[in-house]
Amino acid sequence: MKLINFVLFQLGWFISVWGAANQKLPLSMMVVALILLVHIMQASQKKEATMLLFIIMLLGSIFDQLLLITNLVTYQNQLFDTLVPIWIVAMWGLFATTLNLSLSWLKSNRVLAVLFGFIGGPVAYFAAEQLNAVQLTNHFSIYMLALGWAILTPVCLLIAGKWNGFRT
Questions:
Q1: Following DSSP, what letter does each residue of 37-106 receive, concatenated?
Q2: What are the phi and psi torsion angles at 166 (to 5°)?
Q3: Whole-prediction pTM
Q4: Which backbone phi and psi does 83 adopt, to 5 degrees?
Q5: Fewer CB within 10 Å, N side or C side of the chain?
Q6: Of the ranges 80-84, 103-107, 123-127, which one carries the lowest mean pLDDT score?
């Protein structure tokens, strides 16, 4: 289950970034919606799994909105210049799917969770930039991404502990 979750997350991440960068957003968002639906259907407690997706999508979107309004990051395929695009919201949903499965090992070690976010968050944005889906507007962007993800990763894992749709 954890390996399938990891593979589906990676597939969803790539499809989201590809769709944003190549004007294929409707197709990519259908694939992501399918991945999120499969995740919920696999959960033993669907309400909790669904709530976690929505909570993390909201929390992550607020973070990305702050990056946008402070002009630290710009995104491809924005419907409105002042709002994060739907594909970013969807990617936070994908991240939420990993919290109680493929990333659950981070719950027991907050230091590792902080380090994982500190490194992994900026790496994901840098990779998306290389694929032309985002643009980091200055060198300060990477530091704010690292700080934000270092905080958000353990917070998201804590929230996932409460809304664990995969409890047995």
A1: HHHHHH-SSHHHHHHHHHHHHHHHHHHHHHHHHTTSEEESS-SSTTS--HHHHHHHHHHHHHHTTTTGGG
A2: -115, 15
A3: 0.94
A4: -125, 145
A5: C
A6: 80-84
